[in-house]
Amino acid sequence: MSVIALVSAKGSPGVTMTALALASVWPERVALADIDPAGGDLIWRTRTEGGDPLDPDRGLLALGAATRRGAGETALVLHLQETSQGVPVLVGVPSPELLSGLGAVWGQLPAVFAAHHGDVIVDCGRVVPGSSVLPVLAKADAVVFVVRPDVEGIAQLRERLASLSGQLEAGRVGVIVRTTYRDTRSGADLQQLLDAHGLGAVVLGVVAEDEKGAAVLSSTRIGSVRRSLLGRSAVTLSAAVRDLAGFTAAVEVSA
Ligand SMILES: Nc1ncnc2c1ncn2[C@@H]1O[C@H](COP(=O)(O)OP(=O)(O)OP(=O)(O)O)[C@@H](O)[C@H]1O
Ligand SMILES: [Mg+2]
Question: How many CB atoms lie within 10 A of CB 203?
Fold first, then answer.
């Protein structure tokens, strides 16, 4: 069982979409948790099988309330809702103001995710120093940045990797590049740059820029995600992400 935290350094490079794409094609049992402190987007981007919106009252806030009470319904599975694509989702909160009540719950989320029977992909949104999601990143099996390969995207990624280097173990930090599926260079160039700066993050591959695939993923149509460029890139990525998440376990066993 692995916990994979998806983050961005700045901008909106596609963390939520990538998390949704990965969860939709994940080869093992998986849950998708939206804990973006800036406010959750998955609630707007997914539907139930019947085409209805997911229930905003069943999700992170309810899990937080149960965790704060310290007893009862603290298992992640009790707070998941299945989307039309068959992905069990922990709905985030519609606005950041509502998150202030979570307080100490942030520190307990890693244990909640780790106890889940299945992998957990966590949409942590943009990560800044002092962010509430840092406890989740510190305990995740893999922390994966999504980045656009433009000058700003790469500069912000470098800065954020450097500023978080004391808190993230180099061997479990990955980078996904959002670009066109034809772009075979950006990933290699970025890896070179990260290596040259000793940042210790691994470029895992590309999430394809694919408007149609993104629309399918956000609609109620079932089964067509894997045929889209976005879905196919997510299948390839899921193997790389799982390798990265497994890497720590192997190191821990041999240590
Ligand atoms: N692979 C993709 N192909 C085409 N469009 C995409 C892709 N990924 C994301 N998008 C689009 O880009 C926009 C931003 O994506 P998304 O919300 O996933 O980014 P984010 O990094 O989670 O942003 P935020 O930090 O605001 O939560 C959305 O309109 C989404 O539909
Ligand atoms: Mg997002």
Answer: 23
Q: Where are the alpha helices (DSSP H) in the chain?
A: 15-25, 42-45, 60-69, 105-114, 134-139, 151-163, 185-196, 211-217, 229-254
Kindly give the number of the ligand 1 atom that is closest to the alpha carbon of 11. Answer: 25
CA-angle at 19, arms to 13 and 55, nearest 5°: 110
Q: Which domains does the chain have, with CATH numbers?
A: 3-254 (3.40.50.300)
pLDDT of 139-166, one tens digit each?
999 999 999 999 999 999 999 999 998 8
Q: Are 52 and 109 in contact (CB under 8 A)?
A: no
Which residue in the block uniquely carries the two structure tokens 């173990």? 169
Q: Cβ neighbours of residue 145 under 8 Å, at least 6 residues apart? A: 7, 8, 9, 157, 160, 161, 173, 174, 175, 176, 201
pLDDT value at residue 143: 97
Q: What is the pTM of this model?
A: 0.94
Ligand 1 centre and the CA of 14: distance in Å? 3
What spacing in Å lies between the alpha carbon of 40 and ligand 2's midpoint? 7
| Cβ atoms within 10 Å, residue 237 | 22
